[in-house]
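Reviewers asked in the last cycle whether our approach scales beyond single polypeptides. To address this, we selected a multi-component target totalling 585 residues and predicted its structure end to end. The input consisted of the following lines:
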Amino acid sequence: MKKHLAQLLEQAVQRLQEDGTLPAEASVDIQIERTRDKSHGDFAANTAMLLTKQAKRPPRQIAEQLVAALPESDKVVRVDIAGPGFINFFIDPKAGFSVVQDILDAGEDYGRSTIGAGQRLLVEFVSANPTGPLHVGHGRGAAFGGALCSLLSAAGYDVHREYYVNDAGRQMDILATSIWLRYLEALGEAIRFPDNGYRGEYVKDIAAELQRKEGERFRIAAEKVMAELPADAEQGGDKEAHIDALILRAQELLGAGYRDIHTAGTEAILADIRDDLHEFGVGYDEWFSERSLTESGAVERALARLESSGHVYEKDGALWFRSSDFGDEKDRVVRRDNGQITYFASDIAYHLNKLERGFDLAIDVWGADHHGYVPRVKAALQAFEHNPEQLEVRLVQFAILYRGSERMQMSTRSGKFVTLRELRDEVGKDAARFFYVMRRPEQHLDFDLELAKSQSSDNPVYYLQYAHARICSVYRQLAEKGLAHDPARGAQAIERLTEDHEQMLLTALARYPEVIETAAQAHEPHQLAHYLREVANAFHTYYNAHTFIVDDEALRNARLNLIAATRQVLANGLAILGVSAPEAM
RNA sequence: GCGCCCGUAGCUCAGUUGGAUAGAGUGUCGGCCUCCGAAGCCGAAGGUCGCAGGUUCGAAUCCUGCCGGGCGCGCCA
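The resulting structure, written as structure tokens, was:
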């Protein structure tokens, strides 16, 4: 309908240009929006106001000329000019009925759009280091990323979902060393656990598993392990120097065995993360290994290219990338003076790789604490003469957990954090996913556990699910009364749906495809969450005002068609958000 | 200090990319089950859109400067 009205206005503008009423060179972006107030008709256009400057006439006058030049349409019953120069369209109510049949015919495909035109998008999200289980901060990235991908896919984009696995680098060495030390502890060695080690219980679990499988293969006397180490932070020294020395010690003493522990640790945690996300309803097309970049030489090749194009230099024994040439605050190290490449170096290679795979746009979903990282990655892409706008970084603020009014503190390294799994166990997948995506990602999220698991009207998830379950219940009631829904009969009588509540519901349902398109283009799944609440509200209101199972067979079937369509829209929308649509609750 | 994000009803948040009288939920108060599920519905009250300027037909939205909160500013990842 929006498109239809835009076409009418476009023709009107063209006619006025041809007869000289409007300057021939005038151009205008025709915007049609739904009105908020029924007295303003169904749709409104601000075209006349946008043309005031170019036409050098007051907007209302232009509006009159536009309306006079408007082609006839059987869908438009009246056109008004109102306010400062709005053109208000009143649509023939009959045109609104067709949406019911559209929905019933399309089923799960209702709302699918071709606006993405098969554009290839790479969405990278979560990508938490495999150094421990996912926590509730990662959960928000997972819920947002998952919903965003489904949304984009529904809008006709070709979406590739990817998890970047940081399976190389120092953090993984710290993890491997932590596992080994816990393993030694379990064998009864008198080990002092480093301040900077991973202290979570899961490290002990992996160590126990290692002991079960490998016995005492990695056992080394504590005296040899702890001999002559630089002091740890707690001992008045430097925690980084201490842990680095311990890593080195582990590698020396264990030889090839070190790699086995490292791999065992990564695999154990990655398997856990995969299960966790799977149970959360989030799936990936690819798990992209950082180590594959270093081992294939992709990182070295990227650095060599930067070197030959003059974008790196040496200073203080390290290799620096001139990111400040591309708007970053300062230059960044890509190779440390000890010869090791930095995390940033692999990330350069990774993002180069993304664009070289031919994606039109790469979307990264990051925690907001990484925002300072954006300019340097974009700088790297520019250094390779890629358009930095081909990378879009969506920053997701952390969720702040509350239990009632009590705020819960978290920190990964100390091992004191609420895991995503604990959250799912406590509030359930549906509530967790909905709570995460009902806010704009850049908004801080207050996540109240008590509210999310409360089985009451306070809980916004139930409001939507209840609407769906309630509709299902109507059909069960119908069967109990020995009646059957006849959709063909309902379609014939569809114009009997003239009640205000029915009209409200019809317009709400008709908006669904528009919401999919705007939410997808804005990369904002929360718009869909809010819309679905409106649909549920329109339905609940209707439900309370009218009985569907009436004696009048034609009217009954028409109403059943309408609520069947409502159920379909709720189910389609909830599916995109990763929330189930139960038939009973 | 510099950079990014946020500031809208008591609380939690939307606000269709600059449109008409700023909206929901929740909380408070008052109504609605002999009737397809009351996890629902209807109504009332509640606002200096952080503050001050500017841009224009028109600003919660865009620009500038302040105020307040969060985050970042490593040869960590």
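The CA atoms of residues 274 and 283 of chain A lie 8 Å apart. We regard this as preliminary and will revisit it once experimental data from Aim 1 are available.
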